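Entry 14. Structure prediction run on the chain below.
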Amino acid sequence: MGKIAALISALSFLSVAIFGSGVTGADILKADTGVRAIGLGSAYTAAGNDVESINFNPAGIVFVSGRDVKAYYVKNYAGSLNVELYNISFAQPLETSFLEGTIALEATYLGLPTISNPDATDPGVSFNDLLIKAVYAVNAAKLSYIPWSESKYLNLGIAAGMVFEQLGTFSGSSVMFDLGSQFVLYDTGFMFGAALQNIGTPIKYISEASPLPLTLRLGASYDTRIDKHNIILVSMDYIQDFYDYARFAAGVEDNILNLFYLRAGYNTSIDTRNASYISAGAGLTVKLLETTLAIDYTFRLQFWNGFNGSQQSQLVGIGAKF
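Output returned:
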């Protein structure tokens, strides 16, 4: 039982320092994902236009024009806790006689190293979360039952997922859904997004059932060409976890010749007990024949109570579009 208590203490610290306090279960649903998205402070509800949109606004994958795959691994996702996070996602357009749109699949693993006592006879205790999602998104103009003449400016998306959580010999699971939309404000460069995340059944953890972190995201973004070499993207999000405090996020990205990207972001809670973070990153794309390869890097500094406590992590991801 000593190892269980130690691990529960570590998980409690993890929840407060990284994901925020609250009474919800399935901490993996609070973990920001995506190297580009985190580089923008996770202000990705309206700005998301690739496979990384899956965990922010499922409607964003509408902009995927071919096959889009991304993957990354983080050893120290929670700084000194050595939390490991693996993420892989894939999206592609779908055109059939009965269904059009874009589909995507994603798997995310979050885990702590095994805690063991060399003097004990029982095996070590580990903790891990696994999230698997399937997503469908479509431009509203392709839906015949929406008569609105300007429906081509509206994107809609839905995600369905399963969460699996394990602590030692204890385990739990839950089914969840996300709903999302994006509205492109004609040809102005503005886009607005809204998503309701983590609609699902409570997850039973050992002897108690905890609700999923039901979250509302509202976002706005502006994309403009400064000159022939630079396109600037500015994004902002309001994020309300209904069991916790609200968060605000903002990010900026400079697209240089569609080859090199510079990013910066800020994500903060109105409650100083929850972690905030600043981020900075860069991306590089290289086109080889019909395939575009991408490498993204983000540095994130998380802090709470001012800067009385802080942790840092570095994220590197690879991707391909073909």
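Confidence is low (pLDDT under 50) at residues 1-21.
Filed with the rest of this week's runs.
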